[in-house]
Write a structure and sequence with these properties.
The protein has helices at residues 2-56, 74-90, 93-108, 112-127, 197-205; strands at residues 136-139, 148-154, 165-171, 178-184, 188-190. The N and C termini lie far apart (59 Å). The protein contains five helices and five strands.
């Protein structure tokens, strides 16, 4: 009898420890992953400048062991400054025309145009002047009472011979992939005005774990 009671108490202790452990994981994992991503990105960008200089000028600026030493933070600042400079130059008329010509050349070059156009359109969909992931909706693509969260990316599919249809991108949970559907407008429901595109995306990517604030007043 005492042996059974002892085993029961041991199981309760192990269960309590396991619960505490997973609570700690839930608390630390998001922080740890976020810090790791930020540090890794910073390190990669920061190493880019000395690595590039070492490649282009292996001897001219060498100071330590035949290589250009790394100054923490300098490469990151230069990279950010370069991106800002390019962004500013692209707004100038003559540079904009030059970029437009270069853009057309790349978009017409066999092989390269597939990669270039895909990357360009994807980035512009998030941050450019042609944002696409800003219309979150509910889309019915499985059965009558099953709905997915998606984003309208094209409001007309006439070029595919589908009238009264829209193109909807449905992202996958815990992934950067998704599926593109062309569905009738009747199978689309708009989300409440208080639900932003970023909240809808977080909800899908997190597998429905993230809470959604649908109160436009907050």
């Amino acid at each position: 009898m005492q042996s059974i009671r002892k085993q029961f108490q041991d199981k309760k202790v192990l269960s309590a420890l396991a619960q505490l452990f997973f609570q700690g994981v839930v608390l630390l994992a998001p922080i740890g992953v976020t810090v790791w991503v930020i540090v890794s990105l910073f390190s990669w960008v920061d190493n880019f400048l000395p690595n590039l200089l070492n490649l282009l000028f292996p001897v001219k600026f060498a100071m330590v062991d035949g290589k250009i030493p790394k100054v923490t933070g300098l490469g990151f600042i230069v990279a950010i400054g370069l991106v800002l400079l390019v962004g500013w130059l692209s707004s100038l008329f003559f540079v904009e025309r030059l970029v437009s010509v270069f853009d057309k050349v790349l978009e017409k070059t066999p092989g390269i145009k597939i990669i270039y156009s895909s990357v360009k359109d994807f980035l512009e969909a998030f941050a450019g002047n042609k944002k696409k992931f800003d219309q979150p909706v509910l889309v019915n693509v499985d059965s009558a009472d099953v709905w997915r969260v998606g984003f309208i990316t094209q409001e007309s599919t006439d070029h595919f011979g589908l009238a009264e249809h829209v193109t909807v991108y449905v992202p996958h949970s815990y992934a950067i992939s998704g599926i593109t559907y062309m569905v009738p407008i009747s199978k689309i429901k708009k989300l409440p005005k208080g639900v932003s595109a970023s909240e809808a995306m977080k909800y899908v990517v997190s597998g429905g774990v993230t809470a959604v604030d649908d109160d436009p007043e907050t």
